[in-house]
Structures are given as C-alpha cells and as structure tokens.
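Good morning C.,

I know you're traveling, so I'll keep this short. The sequence:
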Amino acid sequence: MSVICTDLPERWRAGIEAALAAASPAITATDVLLLGGADAGAARAHIAAFAAKAPAAATEGQDRLARAQVIWILPEDAESTLAGALRQAARDHAPDLRINGIVLGPVHPQPEPWQAAWAPAQAPCPARPAPEALAQALTYLLGLPSVTGQILHTHSPLR
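The tokens, ready to paste straight into the viewer:
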C-alpha cells in the first residue's frame, strides 16, 4: 500500500495528514493517489500516470475489484466545473482504478436581497471541516470496493 499526494495546497496538508492517520486501517490493501487542484487537464495526466503503474483489478467471484484508487480533493469553488472531468476519468479507468472526489469546506451562495434578513439567524459554517470529517470521508471511499465517480461533501448542510 502506498499513498501519493499530488497538487495539494499547503493549507490542506495538516488536515489531510491527520485524516490519513485516522483512516490508515482502511487503506492497507490499496494504492491511493490523493489529488488536489482545479486544473482538469493536469488531473487527467496525473491519473493516467498513476493508472499506468497501478495493479490490475482483482477478480472476486464474478466481480473485478480495483486495487488502486484516486481521491480528488476538489476546491469548493470549482466543484461544479470539475465534476464532469471526475466522472469521465472514473468511466475511462474502470474497473482497474476507482476515482472519487471530496469537496472540502462550506459553500456559501450569495443571498438574494430578500434573504438578507435571514442571514443573522443562520449558524455560521466552519471555515474548514474537521480532520475527523475528512477521515470519515476517506475511510468511507476507501472501504467500498464498488464506489466510483462519486463526490462526497464534507461541509455543513447549508448550501
């Protein structure tokens, strides 16, 4: 098992390292590429290079299960533009590679003028999810052998 981190912003490093330490029991049997950044072209290149080195899918009964996984940590402001690239990469590399995404942080849409009166009544979202939330998302994605092309959100329910 190996974990490769690529293009992750410095501000995420401490939280991701804490999450990896907490999620380590779930990642013992797979190679993992943790990918950051908002450039879909660069991400596709990193994924293709990782896929070329990744072990082939294992056969269990009638199923072929991936032994390698990419988790793309998507910037909250670019999630909608990168979702299609993530899902296309998941289709292109299945079943040998599972590719999923995690969106870090809250999403705060600009309120409409008539909603401004409600703003003080809403509880503020944390600036960044706790490492425990990221660890749970990593553990979830790493532990399910058939999940690919999905995006998990680790922010509050306010969207």
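Safe travels,
E.
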